[in-house]
């Protein structure tokens, strides 16, 4: 019966619009990138971004994370994408651990990665400009730091 099929298609359409709307409100309630950060980074850098002194460097208040200068932003992006173990000093504390490459977290697309990065740059009192897709692409093509 075409009429019945039409009615159920309409009901299906209304349901999916409602689902999209619910989804959109859920996303608004927490900043984009926050869930990804909690899943993939917080085990080491901690949910509050403060890290663990001597083991995992803080991302909150870390001038490399909030860099504005394009060259410094490139260094920061490459550390996230390719991993890093060159040793660091943050807030007068030495770190000589191993930052896993982003590949370690499995499939994460560039738009999610950008959300995650921009979350770190604006969470916990950080107040940096957003990183762009073009900057992320440049860091990817530049390779390991
Ligand atoms: C297994 C623990 C671990 C996980 C998970 C981890 N990191 Fe790291 N991260 C480190 C360590 C250790 C260092 C310091 C490396 C060193 O001392 O050379 C570091 C360094 C960094 C740096 C460089 C900081 C600076 O001052 O230059 C950034 C940025 C960073 N991590 C971001 C992230 C992001 C984003 C994620 C999630 C996608 C993440 N990390 C997941 C352990 C981790």
Strand and helix map with partners:
Elements: H1 2-29, H2 34-40, H3 42-45, H4 70-82, E1 88-90, E2 93-95, H5 110-122, H6 133-142
Antiparallel strand pairs: 1-2
Helix pairs in contact: 2-5, 4-6
Heme C binds next to helix 3, helix 4 and strand 1.
- Order of adjacent strands in the largest pleated sheet: 1-2
Low confidence ranges: none
| CATH superfamily descriptor of the largest domain | Cytochrome c-like domain
Total separate domains: 2
Q: What is the beta-strand fraction?
A: under 5%
In which range does the helix fraction lie?
Answer: 40-55%
Would you write up a description of this structure?
With 145 residues, the protein is mainly alpha-helical. The protein folds into two domains: 1-30; 32-142, Orthogonal Bundle (Cytochrome Bc1 Complex, Chain D, domain 2). The chain has six helices and two strands; from the N terminus they run ααααββαα. The protein has helices spanning 2-29, 34-40, 42-45, 70-82, 110-122, 133-142, and strands spanning 88-90, 93-95. Strands 1-2 form a two-stranded antiparallel sheet. β1 and β2 form a beta hairpin. α2 (34-40) crosses α5 and α4 crosses α6 (133-142). The longest helix has 28 residues, at 2-29. The termini are far apart. The mean pLDDT is 85. The structure holds heme C. Heme C (HEC) binds at residues 40-41, 43-45, 56-57, 59, 62, 64-65, 76, 79-80, 84-88, 90, 95-100, 102, 105, 120. The site of heme C (HEC) has 29 residues, from α3, α4 and β1.
């Amino acid at each position: 019966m075409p009429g019945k099929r039409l009615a159920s298609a309409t009901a299906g359409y209304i349901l999916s619009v409602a689902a999209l709307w619910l989804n959109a409100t859920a996303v608004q309630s927490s900043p984009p990138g926050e869930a990804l950060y909690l899943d993939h980074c917080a085990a080491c850098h901690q949910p509050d971004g403060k890290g663990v002194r001597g083991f995992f460097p803080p991302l909150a208040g870390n001038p490399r994370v909030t860099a504005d200068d394009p060259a410094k932003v490139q260094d920061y992006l490459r550390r996230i994408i390719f991993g890093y173990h060159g040793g660091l000093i943050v807030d007068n504390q030495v770190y000589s651990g191993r930052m896993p490459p982003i590949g370690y977290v499995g499939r994460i697309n560039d738009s999610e990665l950008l959300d995650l990065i921009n979350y770190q740059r604006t969470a916990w009192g950080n107040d940096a400009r957003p990183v762009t897709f073009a900057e992320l692409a440049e860091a990817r093509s530049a390779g390991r730091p």
